[in-house]
Amino acid sequence: MWKFTTSKNSKLNPDEMVLDADNIPCHVAVIMDGNGRWAEQRRLPRSMGHKAGVENINKIVRGASDIGVKYLTLYAFSTENWQRPNDEVSTIMKLLVEYLRKELNNLHKNNVKVKTIGDISKLPKPCIEVLQESKVKTENNTGLVLNLALNYGGRADILYAFKNVFADYKKGKLNAEDVENLTEKDFSDYTYTAGIPDPDIIIRPSGEQRLSNFLLWQCAYSEFWYSNVMWPDFTVEYLYKAIYDYQNRDRRFGKVK
Ligand code: IPE
Ligand code: IPE
Ligand code: MG
User: Fold this and answer.
1) Residue 32: per-residue pLDDT
2) Is 66 labeled as catalytic in the residue annotation?
3) Shortest CA distance to 54 belongs to which of 109, 94, 105?
4) CB-side exposure of 140: number of CA atoms within 13 Å?
5) Is residue 35 part of a domain?
6) Residue 84 C-alpha to ligand 2 middle, in angstroms?
7) Count of structural domains, the chain
8) Is a pLDDT exceeding 80 seen at residue 137?
9) Alpha helices, DSSP H only, in 139-255?
10) Is 33 a catalytic residue?
11) Which of 30, 31, 78 has the most ligand 2 atoms within 8 A of CB, as the residue to mutate?
């Protein structure tokens, strides 16, 4: 059973699985991986794995929101995922559209704010439309920010930021000296995640231990958490276990204590 404590100095007891309510990661990022293998293990087509994967999103959103996570970034489609067979790509896109159409009212009722990172202009039109509608509808919500990484790549993100800096320079918003003196913080404000703090923890189910081009700039001091469970089987218990482990790590940020 997971319990919560509000005491700042409370010791975490592994038998009780107590989560420290004062040390909940502000930004949790998840690489939703393993849909295909989940399906293959069941002798189902990969599309069924993607369906189960999308259906899993809701309970993780709720679980994160319940304990006060502020930002939940979900890696749903990478810049490299376009290289998959066309029918798989269109299935994933259709499932995302269906998910948002079906769940938007619910997300809104739960005060969730929908955002995206990545170049969504390259997504199919229905996808762009429902994302736009979701963003507008939930714009003023103050609860969990559900940040969907779609056609997202960490390298593309860094390049996007660089081009945004250059655009501001051309417009005269920045002069040569401003560019020369640009800080890491300034640069962060030109990335897709502008205004969002760096992820405290990056979770990857499915057994792979790599970033696959996710949040390369932003992950400088993120904690990494891996599990062999496939994304469609990733439950709130796994999320809380990841956060429990996070709370037992010593984040030093290069300093000494
Ligand atoms: C993640 O599951 C979904 C996307 C990348 C869109 P996969 O489809 O990568 O599942 P595996 O890795 O083949 O099991
Ligand atoms: C990463 O998973 C991308 C998403 C989950 C959206 P992939 O399945 O695409 O990554 P690789 O190919 O295993 O590195
Ligand atoms: Mg995969």
Assistant:
1) 98
2) no
3) 94
4) 0
5) yes
6) 11
7) 1
8) yes
9) 154-171, 176-180, 184-188, 236-247
10) yes
11) 78
C-alpha 189/C-alpha 5 separation (Å) is: 34
Q: Is 35 in the pocket of ligand 1 (CB under 6 A)?
A: yes
Q: pLDDT digits over 76-122, tens only? A: 999 999 999 999 999 999 999 999 999 999 999 999 999 999 999 99
Q: What is the pLDDT of residue 257?
A: 86
Ligand 1 geometric centre to CA of 77 (Å): 9
Q: Can you give the pLDDT at residue 173?
A: 98
In a domain, 29, yes or no: yes
Is ligand 1 within 6 A of the CB of residue 48? no
> Tell me, what CATH number does 233's domain have?
3.40.1180.10
Q: Residue 5's pLDDT is what?
A: 58
Output the pLDDT for position 1: 56
76 close to 99: Cβ distance less than 8 angstroms: no
Is residue 8 a part of any domain in this protein? Answer: no
- Among the options 20, 35, 56, 81, which is catalytic? 81
- Output the DSSP codes for 207-227: S--S-TTSSTTTTTT-EEEE-
What is the SS3 assignment for 144?
coil
Average pLDDT (55-74) is 98
The answer to whether the CB of 227 falls within 8 A of the CB of 30 is: no
Asked whether residue 252 is assigned to any structural domain, the reply reads no
* Percent of all residues in the chain with a pLDDT value above 90, rounded to a whole number: 93
Angstrom CA distances, 162 to 47, 155, 166, stand at 36, 11, 6
> Looking at this protein, which amino acid is placed at residue 123?
L
Q: What is the pLDDT of residues 169-203, one digit of tens each?
A: 999 999 999 999 999 999 999 999 999 999 999 99
Domain containing 236 equals: 24-153+198-247
Q: Which residue has the tokens 């896109």?
A: 93
